[in-house]
Amino acid sequence: MKKLIAGNWKMNGNAAEASALIEAVEAKIAKDMDILDKCDFVVCPPFVHLGLVRAKLENVAMGAQNCSQRGNGAFTGDISCAMLRDIGARYVILGHSERRQYHKEKDETIAAKAQAANAEGLITIICVGETEEEREAGKQNDIVAAQLEKSLPDGVSEDNTVIAYEPVWAIGTGKTATPDDIRAMHAFIRGKLVAKYDDGDKIRILYGGSVKPSNAAEIFAVEHVDGALIGGASLKADDFMGIAAAA
Ligand code: PEP
What we know:
This protein is α/β, with parallel strands linked by helices. The chain has a single domain, classed as TIM Barrel (Alpha-Beta Barrel), CATH 3.20.20. Helix content is 40%, strand content 16%. The protein has helices spanning 15-31, 50-54, 81-86, 97-102, 107-119, 132-136, 140-151, 179-196, 213-220, 237-246; strands at 3-8, 39-44, 61-64, 91-94, 123-128, 161-165, 205-208, 227-230. An eight-stranded parallel barrel has the order 1-2-3-4-5-6-7-8, surrounded by four helices. Strand 2 (39-44), helix 2 (50-54) and strand 3 (61-64) form a beta-alpha-beta unit. Helix 1 packs parallel to helix 10, helix 7 (140-151) packs parallel to helix 8 and helix 9 runs parallel beside helix 10. The longest helix has 18 residues, at 179-196.
């Protein structure tokens, strides 16, 4: 399976910076097209930059960082899946721990958003992961199992869903889970997917949490790591592509 290299730009960058970043990523891929045999790429800019990034895409797909579960209508401040499709998004990140934490998004809401996204033809990147406290209490498998059970909608398949395991304590902290921790959790998630879905062995499972060029190779070497969801390091084309090179 090709690795999926996904950049989550979060709430960063002005228009000029977003343009320069996608141009730099595309330019690096253009110089080394063989990398496309090994990796698929997606970048997820803030909503306001989707249009300008779309205009510069060559070999990279585009995603959003959130969507509404509702269709177009009187929902001030929300963005529908139809709007995301219309502007050229193919993916949408859902259930990121920052949305679970700051917007109190619950698994049920994430499942409703995922259902709406899939119905519109978007591929969801559904984030799951435990907090530091939960890991210290040895509850990581229970937490992730419950998130998988409740935040995945009906009709999940390898064509419409990607799972991202992101231990919350490793996001933006510089702390990375050890290869053994990642191996154990990715095998656990794979087992759950295989038990529930016919193509559960083909649904991609990304690792996310302080992935950088210096640790990417050992993370990608772990079984059932099918790519990475990259926050901070996706804001520098050299780092983003350095991670891809490790794949
Ligand atoms: C993320 O936000 O999904 C993430 C993994 O961030 P970082 O790479 O900065 O830890």
